[in-house]
Specification:
Its cofactor is [3Fe-4S] cluster; [2Fe-2S] cluster. Keywords: Iron, Iron-sulfur, Metal-binding. By secondary structure, the chain is an alpha+beta fold. It has two domains: 109 residues, Roll (Ubiquitin-like (UB roll)); 127 residues, Alpha-helical ferredoxin (Fumarate Reductase Iron-sulfur Protein, Chain B, domain 2, Orthogonal Bundle), CATH 1.10.1060. The chain is built from eight helices and seven strands; from the N terminus they run ββαβββββααααααα. A hairpin with a 2-residue loop joins β3 and β4. α3 packs antiparallel against α5. The longest helix has 15 residues. It is elongated, with a radius of gyration of 20 Å.
Length: 248
């Protein structure tokens, strides 16, 4: 199998960008896009050229590091699938595939396909945490939580912070990401005293760093963790609640 990879190359944040095409042969349909980039980079290094910078870690779809834009779509053509699990079988043999960094004003390019997603980290720093006593660990059953609440919280906690939702949104909003964090922590009794403080802090950071929610729904279509649009609705809900409650 052979593909032509049209790749965004950029030597640094302030360097001019360019698109370079590479023909990569010896591929197999079961290989992932990252496998194809590994093969390309091995050949570039062997020939004395600079490899393509791309971020990845676990390659199991749980770390969120590998996000790129593939033919204009965050992660790739397969819905709700991270880049590391996008298989080459989704492309025709001999096809041309365009690889770019995640496109968002909140994610400046660092080099080639790598972007700075620290704006998401600042949301977590603002409110994605709870304050607990750091003494002896309590018994596992000391805080009763029903199975339904636990499952709902875990569904939201599954967000891997890849940033694809931001890149997919026409307005560059991060409401799916922030709403997942707010919902996860609001459902659990741990940190309930900080619920209003958390909502206010996260909302301020959203307003400062990201665009308003477009209500377009593209975020949920690319989310590898299958976070639902109910997370988006949680942002104004928690923000409104914080206007009238002083529990934190």
């Amino acid at each position: 199998m052979k593909l032509t990879l049209r790749i965004h190359r950029q030597d640094g944040p302030s360097a001019p960008a360019r698109t370079v095409s590479y023909e990569v042969e010896g591929l197999a349909p079961q290989m992932s896009l990252l496998d194809a980039l590994d093969l390309l980079n091995t050949r570039l290094v062997e020939s004395g050229d600079d490899p393509v910078s791309v971020e990845s870690d676990c390659r199991e779809g749980i770390c969120g590091a590998c996000g790129i834009t593939v033919d204009g779509r965050p992660h790739g053509p397969q819905a709700n699938t991270p880049t590391c699990h996008q298989r080459l079988g989704a492309f025709a043999d001999g096809a041309t595939v365009t690889l770019e960094p995640l496109r968002s004003g909140a994610f400046p390019v660092v080099r080639d396909l790598v972007v700075d997603r620290s704006a998401l980290d600042r949301i977590i720093a603002a409110g994605g945490h709870v304050g607990l006593d750091a003494g002896t660990a309590p018994d596992a059953d000391s805080v009763p939580i029903t199975a339904g609440v636990a499952e709902a919280a875990l569904d939201m906690a599954a967000c891997i912070g890849c940033g694809a939702c931001v890149a997919a949104c026409p307005n560059g909003a991060a409401h799916l990401f922030a709403g997942a964090k707010l919902t996860h922590l609001a459902l659990l009794p741990h940190g309930s005293l900080e619920r209003s403080t958390r909502a206010r802090a996260v909302s301020r950071r959203l307003d400062e760093e990201f665009g308003p929610c477009s209500l377009y729904g593209a975020c949920a279509q690319v989310c590898p963790a299958h976070i639902s649009l109910t997370a988006v609705a949680a942002v104004p809900k928690q923000r409104l609640r914080a206007l009238f409650r002083r529990d934190g």
